Amino acid sequence: MNDFVTWYAGLPAIGQIGLTIIVGAIVAGIVFAIVKKLVKRVVSAVVATILSFLLATVPGNLILQNAATQLENQIGSHLDTGGENR
After folding, report:
1. Residue 6: inside a domain, yes or no?
2. What's phi and psi for 82, nearest 5 deg?
3. 85 lies in a domain?
4. Which residues, in sequence order, are CB contacts of 54 under 8 Å at separation 6+?
């Protein structure tokens, strides 16, 4: 580590600035990629939560009620025809 510090201190000011910018850009790129993945996962989780909430409430109830009504109609028509397939 001391060798690196000595080497860095021996660079001209423009070299130190350039190296600092390059290292900073690399670190920023890595952090950006990680944060991007985390935000994407969080957004996906939020969307999934909202959709599951909506399906579990009024719209979900309507869908299930509609499916139950269709099932009752199918069972009723099946019983009305004496068990024959249409």
Report:
1. no
2. 75, 25
3. no
4. 60
CA–CA gap between residue 36 and residue 28 (Å, rounded) = 12
Render pLDDT for 19-28 as a digit per residue (tens, 0 to 9). 999 999 999 9
* pLDDT tens readout for residues 32-63: 999 999 999 999 999 888 878 877 787 777 87
85 in the Ramachandran plot: left (φ > 0), alpha (ψ -120 to 50) or beta?
beta
Asked whether residue 60 is domain-assigned, the answer is yes
Domain residues for the domain of 34 are 12-80
Block residue for tokens 């201190």? 9
Q: Is 84 helix (H, G, I), strand (E, B) or coil?
A: coil
Q: 79 vs 27, 66, 67, 70, 82, CA distance in Å?
A: 71, 20, 18, 14, 5
Asked if residues 38 and 46 have their Cβ atoms less than 8 Å apart, the reply is no
Instruction: Give the tokens for residue 78.
Output: 């099946």
